[in-house]
Design goal:
Length: about 500
């Protein structure tokens, strides 16, 4: 699940049927000629992809009514034994899925046409907007309130975002949701002339995939779900965000403990408590005198980033260390320049995030409920709870009638493979287990102690125990007879050479 701060268990056993015999035997599937009519030109700037568009109904209840344009990209299968197409969603809601064939290894790219798309409302697909990007200019106000009076400006701000979404994206806004995006995926399948699709989803994509499978179970060939959201109707989306707060606190504790074990490198103190003290010192100093683009809210986003990806632990800890030890905020400012929320693309992503989550499910309309619930959670998870609350609070004032989330049962789906780290903060393990239970045909590959978000084919995770099984599944349809436990990938060594942070194009 996306958590871009704009300001900033018992394993449940499940049974799985054997894969159909044909699923384990790769066969050459000719590319339907109709697909070439979709992809009409080389993509820019990545000309080794082909680009095109698919027209879909704005409102599926009125299929002959107004249309939206969905942007799609294709990286053609490079091998002779083509197995069809893989549709990909990298997460969000609000993330672009174009030009991402490097998300799978060479062997998978040989077997499949890799199809990326911008979901409705995102990027090149009839994009929406809620506010001027300058609304998210940094430094922002400290998200952690000292008292109830300090919460009032954030409540007003959330209401203004909801009002802005209705004003700037009103005609399209009611139709930006997960169910319609899943229907768009099936329109892409039809446009490509494919009888079925295989699907690979990460983070929010692990919710979109089961939604598609619930609506079109006979159209799913294979489904790989990486870093899984709780798809239970009781969790989508309000409870899932509260659960996320606790998981982020746990993951932050792990990062701060790691920093404390390398006090000879970072000089932020030995032990978790000492590192927290240094962090809060930096937070207080930035509150009194912000650095360029950086106040306490932005410092918190660095913790969020570290909770997502431990590949950034070294650079993020060094940026904090340089500020605390040397008074040098260069690293903090550089981070915000690279992750600036006040750009058109970032604002569009945030608008879609709010639209999908607010439209998908019912949210409390009473500020008192939000205040009581988040106050209670903040006692256990004080670091980031309020930042997450303000991110989602526009849903309390949403102008569009809210719906009940789609009930996921997994009925009629083929064997599914799920990948999950037990310390994932963005998609907590307990929620992933619940989705595992909701998908009776699923098997889970569990990285015990792993906390990075997005595990498969990641150059900064590199867990062969996970990668080999996921690749075998995509190529053969084979799932293990039972859930598999893998050891966690090693944590970064701050004394080693920096690792690559860019997911390569093919």
């Amino acid at each position: 699940m996306k958590w871009t701060l704009a300001l900033a268990a018992v394993l449940l056993a499940s049974t799985v049927g054997a894969a159909p015999a044909s699923a384990g035997t790769p066969t050459t599937e000719p590319r339907p000629p109709v697909a070439d009519k979709v992809f009409t030109q080389p993509c820019q700037p990545y000309t080794f992809y082909e680009c095109g568009t698919v027209s879909v109904p704005l409102d599926y209840a009125r299929p002959d009514g107004p249309k939206l344009t969905i942007a799609v990209s294709r990286y053609k299968a490079t091998g002779s034994a083509r197995q069809g197409v893989i549709l990909f969603n990298p997460g969000g809601p609000g993330g672009s899925g174009l030009f991402a064939a490097g998300a799978v290894p060479k062997s998978v790219r040989a077997a499949y046409d890799f199809i990326g798309f911008d979901p409705r409302g995102v990027g090149r697909s009839s994009p929406i907007s809620c506010v001027d990007p300058s609304f998210y200019a940094t430094p922002a106000a400290d998200p952690n309130p000292a008292d109830d009076a300090a919460k009032v400006p954030f409540v007003k701000r959330a209401r203004s975002i909801a009002d802005g979404c209705a004003a700037k994206s009103g005609a399209e806004l009611p139709y930006i949701n997960s169910v319609n995006t899943a229907r768009d995926m099936d329109e892409i399948r039809k446009a490509l002339g494919e009888p079925q699709i295989s699907y690979y989803g990460v983070s929010y994509g692990t919710y979109l995939g089961p939604v598609y499978g619930q609506l079109f179970p006979d159209k799913v060939r294979r489904m790989l779900l990486d870093s899984n959201i709780n798809a239970d109707t009781s969790a989508v989306w309000y409870q899932a965000n509260l659960d996320q707060d606790v998981a982020f606190q746990k993951r932050a504790d792990i990062w701060f403990d790691w920093i404390g074990r390398y006090d000879n490198v970072f000089h932020l103190g030995s032990g978790t408590e000492a590192v927290y003290n240094s962090y809060f010192k930096a937070r207080s100093q930035l509150a009194a005198k912000p650095a360029p683009m950086v106040g306490p809210a932005e410092l918190d986003t660095i913790v969020v980033n570290s909770a997502y990806y431990d590949i950034n632990w070294v650079s993020n800890a060094k940026a904090i260390s340089d500020y605390v030890v040397k008074g040098d905020a260069t690293g903090l400012t550089k981070y915000m320049q690279q992750n600036n929320p006040a750009t058109a693309d970032a604002e569009n992503s945030q608008a879609v995030y709010n639209a999908v989550e607010c439209n998908d499910a019912r949210w409390p309309r009473s500020w008192t409920v939000w205040n009581n619930d988040n106050t209670a959670v903040a006692r256990k998870a004080p670091l980031l709870t309020w930042s997450n609350a303000w991110l989602n609070l526009p849903c309390a004032f949403w102008r569009v009638p809210q719906a009940e989330p789609l009930r996921i049962t997994g009925a009629g789906l083929p064997p599914i493979l799920m990948l999950q780290g037990t310390n994932d903060a963005a998609t907590p393990y307990e929620g992933a287990l619940r989705t595992h239970q909701l998908l009776p045909s699923s098997r889970m590959i569990i990285e015990q102690g792993g906390g990075s978000h997005g595990l498969y084919n990641s150059p900064w995770v590199g867990n062969k125990c996970i990668d080999d099984r996921a690749t075998a599944y995509l190529l053969t349809g084979a799932v293990p007879p039972a859930d598999v436990n893998c050891a966690a990938h090693p944590l970064p060594d701050p004394t080693a050479a920096p690792a690559s942070r860019t997911l390569p194009h093919p």
